[in-house]
Amino acid sequence: MLTWNLSVHVLTLHFIIFFTQMFVGVGPSRVRDLFSQARQNSPCIIFIDEIDAIGRSRGRGGLIGGNDERENTLNQLLVEMDGFQQNSGVVVLAGTNRVDVLDQALLRPGRFDRQIVIDNPDVKGRKQIFMVHLKKVVVANPPGKEKIAEALSVRTPGFSGAQIANICNEAALIAARDANNFVTMEHFEFALDRIIGGLEKKNLVMTPEEKRTVAYHEAGHAVTGWFLEHALPLLKVSIVPRGEAALGYAQYQPQEQSLMSTEQLKDMMCMTLGGRAAEEVFFDTVTTGAADDFRKVTQMAYQSVTQYGFGKAAGLLSFPTADQDQGAQVVRPYSNATADAIDREVRSTVDDLYTRTVQLLRSKKEQAAKVAELLLRNEVIMYDDMVKILGERPFKPQDRTFEQITKSAEKEPKAEVSQKS
């Protein structure tokens, strides 16, 4: 695509489509043609989108000759970029969300040596993005666009601009299907549920026994988190099936933080184990419903021992995990004895946390049963319903509104360096 703006030519290309071909030599040839065209149209900007499709580190994956064409194309790109002079009038830009897999030769001085990191927006940024997308949406007033934007910005930490736009579009579609003249907060709630949890499975029929098990399972998650100080604040619990495998889910108030303490990680693991613990406390048998919970807990437990320095088996060393490795298999940089020690510590940690969770639910068995029975009747219960059954959480209240979160951010203490004479 060739466009003009302020008398500067812009060449925008998608590497994977334009350069990657089945015929040997086509990729390097097109790279040469691209840079030749750029020089002829100087001043010119070349923008290469998704450069990781062709710019991955060479010789990865252990396949001999499997990436020859891609590597030849990458080599030609490196040669062309080396041939530029400072006054050539051509600027090369690229975009990717996988800088970690790029070949280091691409990042050397004279090539892509300046990196601009565009993070997902914070709560204030999300509010501003919501306000932009809500301009073309007719919303209910009250609460009005600003209040809706503030409420949704608190609920969506880590969301990108595209995801925020998707929420607004989805809410508008839901309102249109309901034949509403305006979009209400309820429509935005439905849209957020759909994006986070997936589509409702209205055609899925569960037996009364299955529905009861799911209700007590989700109540176990909710009640466990309610009485753990460092667990995330609960927003809603649902036993409406959604997505590919979820028969129910609990939604929590995410926190925007960069660091996590050992207490927070352990409470999160206990909350994740709360579903299986509830099945053990209330029923004579357990089910396969906690499979995904176990996967999450296993990942958190191994990370705590092998990466975060929270365990004794690895000490203050950091070892890679399967999801970090770019190849098909992790090569463990430690002995079998260390691996056995890590496995034993992970198992012991999870067993101890599960015992703690079961004991907590046994002590709150009556309250958990009330939550589960309300879920069976209503299918969805909110924070206020939990307060009526369990009372307020017995801990310092966490920031829940836009005003509280922004004020807390402004009041964060700054580190001071004392100078000694």
Automatic annotation (TrEMBL):
Gene3D superfamilies on file: 1.10.8.60, P-loop containing nucleotide triphosphate hydrolases, Peptidase M41
UniProt record, GO biological process: mitochondrial protein processing
Highest taxon of the lineage: Eukaryota
Domain Peptidase M41: 205-389
Main location: membrane
GO terms assigned for molecular function: ATP binding; ATP hydrolysis activity; ATP-dependent peptidase activity; metal ion binding; metalloendopeptidase activity
Keywords: ATP-binding, Hydrolase, Membrane, Metal-binding, Metalloprotease, Nucleotide-binding, Protease, Transmembrane, Transmembrane helix, Zinc
Reported cofactor(s): Zn(2+)
Domain ATPase AAA-type core positions: 18-119
Statement: the UniProt record of this protein carries the keyword Zinc: yes
Domain AAA ATPase AAA+ lid: 150-189
Keyword NADP: no
Transmembrane segments: 6-26
Subcellular locations according to the entry: Membrane; Mitochondrion
Cellular component GO terms, alphabetical: m-AAA complex
Family matches, as InterPro entries: AAA_lid_3, ATP-dep_Zn_Metalloprotease, ATPase_AAA_core, ATPase_AAA_CS, P-loop_NTPase, Peptidase_M41, Peptidase_M41-like
Family listed: In the N-terminal section; belongs to the AAA ATPase family.
Protein name, entry field: AAA+ ATPase domain-containing protein
Organism: Rhodosorus marinus
